[in-house]
Amino acid sequence: MPVINFTNPFAILVALILFALVLYLGRETKKSFVVAIMLFIFISLLLGHTIEFMTVGQSDQEIYKAVTRSATIDLLFVFLSFISYLWVDSMEVKLGKKKSIDDSLEWFWNKV
């Protein structure tokens, strides 16, 4: 079974609560590195599940499906964390009146 099993609804709920708390902390402190840490944690989880996916193979179908679902949930969390990072980073740039190379979220909102 995966180390962090995202097929369990309780694990997904705990991850969502932690995601929301870290996002709230990043928004209140206006520090993008807080959300960047969360992004790197989800990327490392995805990497771990991918390695586990490659080592398990298709020998045990139950474990194979659990790892596949966990990796899919990891990808969703990586996407949400990346968008959250861009959002908090744009707030940090506006608050600090720093010069930004580009508006990080502009490309996203133009597509939506």
Give keywords:
single chain, elongated, 4 helices
Question: How is this fold's topology laid out?
Answer:
Blueprint: H1 9-29, H2 32-56, H3 61-96, H4 106-111
Helix pairs in contact: 1-2, 1-3, 2-3
Structure report:
The structure is a single chain. The protein is elongated and about 55 Å long. The protein has helices spanning 9-29, 32-56, 61-96, 106-111. It has four helices and no strands. Helix 1 (9-29) packs antiparallel against helix 2, helix 1 (9-29) runs parallel beside helix 3 and helix 2 runs antiparallel to helix 3. The model has no long low-confidence stretch (mean pLDDT 84). It is mainly α.
User: Helix count, per DSSP?
Assistant: 4
Say what oligomer this is.
single chain
Task: Note the beta-strand portion.
Answer: under 5%
Instruction: Give the helix/strand class.
Output: mainly alpha
Strand segment tally: 0
Given as residue ranges, the uncertain stretches (5+ residues, pLDDT < 50) are: none
Distance between the termini: 37 Å
Tell me the Rg in angstroms: 17 Å
For the sheet with most strands, the description reads: none
Average of per-residue pLDDT values = 84
Q: Name the shape in a single word.
A: elongated
- Kindly state the percentage of residues in helix: over 70%
What is the ordering of alpha helices and beta strands? Answer: HHHH
